[in-house]
Amino acid sequence: MNSSVIVVDNFYSDPDCVRELALGDELVDPFSLSGNFAGRESEYNYFSESIVESFEKILGTKIVVDEDSNAFGRFRFARASDKRKTQIHFDNKDWSAVVYLSRNSPSGTGTIFVEHRRLNLVGPPVSKEELQRYGCDNLNDFDRKYVLPDTLNPGAWATHLRVPFKYNRLVLFRGRKLFHGSEGLFGENRADGRLTHNFFFDEAR
Questions:
Q1: How large is the average pLDDT for residues 133-161?
Q2: CATH number, domain at 105?
């Protein structure tokens, strides 16, 4: 599978059941200390073997589910009033997956993929040699020098792809290789706010 962004509508066979599970779950605020991302997420991972198999079928490869090092199956919820320090970013896993679980989401909301205008990059450098050209030793160094300073500056980024919010839509993408972010927080509570089911994982090697 060469596609960097894959969109699958009607992903869950019973999305209402998944949504009800999310609405009834206890949420914690994992970002309360850093305040990096808006909203809250579930304390535990929620997934089944069929979800893992679905990802593997779409990608045509086995995946590694590492619940301890990263979220795999966490529900995330955010409101229009929630604050964040981070919007545009890249992830530390091969693949990121987001299933939209909000009904009646407003226009102009979803996930955006962007290019850094000054650097002319759609994602971070992929090799040590490229990192060195930007004066960086590793991806954390690159993030600190180039991405985080512009994460909330819309003028620093040019959107090249937008995947609008649609109930039960899966957005599966190469999170480590693409600059991306959520677009448009909305709602006042869990019932009408931005609700997603999130997964982060590597390909088996």
A1: 97
A2: 2.60.120.620
Report the first-to-last Cα separation within the chain, whole angstroms.
Answer: 15
Asked if residue 180 lies in contact with residue 97, where contact means CB atoms within 8 angstroms, the answer is no
* Phi, psi (rounded to 5 degrees) for 92: -110, 20
Task: Report the alpha-carbon distance of residue 59 to residue 29 in Å, rounded.
Answer: 32
CA–CA separation, 128 and 186 (whole Å): 39
Residue 65 near residue 201, CB atoms below 8 Å? yes
Q: Is the pTM of this model over 0.90?
A: yes
For the record, the structure tokens of 150 come out as 């512009």
d(CA 104, CA 121): 34
Domain of 36 in residue numbering reads as 5-203
pLDDT in tens, 65-98: 987 766 899 999 999 988 888 899 999 999 999 9
Number of domains in the chain: 1
